[in-house]
Amino acid sequence: MDALIERVAGLDVHQGSVVACSILGAAGRRPIKEVRSFGTMRQDLAALREWLLEKGVTHVGMESTGVYWQPVHAALEVDFTVIVGNASHMRNVPGRKTDVKDAEWIADLVRHGLVRASFVPPPAIRVLRELVRHRKALVGTMAAERNRTLKLLEGAGIKLAGVMSSVFGVSGMLMLRALAEGGAAPAAMADLAKRRLRSKIDRLALALDGALAEHQRLLLRMHIRRLEEIGRDLAEVEAAICRHAPLRRPASLAGDHPRRGRADDSGHRRQDRGGHGRLRHRSASGRLGWAVPGQPRKRPQADASQHPQGQPIPQGHPGHRRGLRRANQRHIPARQVPPATGTHGHEKGRRGCRAQDPGRCLPHAAARRRLRCRWRSESA
User: Fold this and answer.
1) Bridge partners of 33?
2) Which of 59, 131, 199, 366 has the fewest Cβ atoms nearer than 10 Å?
3) 310-319, pLDDT tens digit by residue?
4) 8 Å CB contact between 60 and 9
């Protein structure tokens, strides 16, 4: 198999060491191989980068080994084309495996173009993804901590979860703190309810009439303190996500319909394929009228003269309110529409059934086909 890349390098990445093998040489000639080992500290990765630049390497391949490949990729992505491959796709022949042989195998695969590069997002997206994943972990930790708190309350005979929809809301947290401190009567703790929950004060007093032991109060205080810490961490992470997240276009600038709410890209594509309801603004103020304060909030009208699918149906025609007509659709004079047969008020169409709308258009498809044949004969 012919080589596709003349100057490549393969890296076998571990937690504390990186074995690099460079292969230099054109296709059809015997390549020159050189193997060196480096550490994984920042200074060692800088030395690896300098050595690869000195060799004139253009493409660097490595396996996606846990998280160990990430600092190596970050140190080399600016100066080289880094290919991070799936380890199962780059598996060597079983036998005498060493770090040097693995590095040579990876370099040889990259040299012949046999490694499919995995997707590695740009640095900004990597930062945002790490923040979002940490937020997901915090949400899971908070849910687990809440479940442990509810289990503790149920074990003590406190049935707040059966009366309140959210035990960890404003009213619920006030009651939990009162339970952790001890000394308050159930009626006094139930009186801490806010707003609509005050209609359940009697049931809350019964639910709070439990028996919390001293060690359970200690555990409840720990649960409350941990929930508050997780809540603060969540707020901080969400603020960082908002700072790093890219801004969205306003709904009006994206072409969203002002009365149908916000639509995504798939909704726009579906509307473009349908053809009907496509709005055309005549000026910049018309495009921004729904977003910029002070602009006249007029609903844009469809400009049928520039519509690619044909001209509008005449005003007097019964179907003029249904939108734009197709390019091959003709106006049907009233005298050519065959009248529906049947008793007065119960017009019938094909097969004795009532026509769908006798006054609007043709009663059924068979008459429409007959009229189409008549038009063709008259035009011929």
Assistant:
1) 23
2) 199
3) 455 555 555 4
4) yes
